[in-house]
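User: I'm new to structure prediction. If I give you an amino acid sequence, what do you actually give back? Let's try with this one:
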Amino acid sequence: MDTTKQQEDMVKKIEVLSFLVAMVDGISHEESEMLEYIAGRIRMFYQAQPAVEEFEKSKDVEKAIALIDLPLSVSIVMFEPKDHFDEIDKELEAMAAVKSENPLEDFEALLKIKASEITNDYDKKVAMIAIEDVYSADGASSVEKWAHIILAKEWGMSMRTVNKWFAESLAPILERGNQFE
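Assistant: Good question. You get back a string of structure tokens that encode the predicted 3D arrangement of the chain. For your 181 residues, that looks like this:
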């Protein structure tokens, strides 16, 4: 199943937030590698979405899995244009050019602005998972966790709740969706 234009736009928004959180203490080699692959993982979460939503209602994994094409796959588009990273780099350069009394507050405001572009509950949960996947690739620093908490609060959710949702709703579909028939 191909992702829709709306989902692809969301993939880019989530990639940008993942980048912003990871770069708050400097992008490591491991985080950079994870950023290369995170879009594919997000696409797989979108492939699973109809099944996840059905599973949340019915708790019937077979009924849910029947709604999607199998197997679920991580779809990586090699040499995909990354214009959205160029745009955020320009925004960050503009912020750096302005002498601020509190650059951390400015960064927090930027995170909140970017977070406000994601309004759907499923998208927010996917973003929370993807962001953590990227910044935890090299271990998680306290400042990265702080940035992640800013986003969680902005979206009215906790990392604990999202992790529980992942374990109880998304993971069963991913596991069943990747079993060979």
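You can read the tokens as a compact description of the fold. Here is one thing that stands out. The mean pLDDT is 92.
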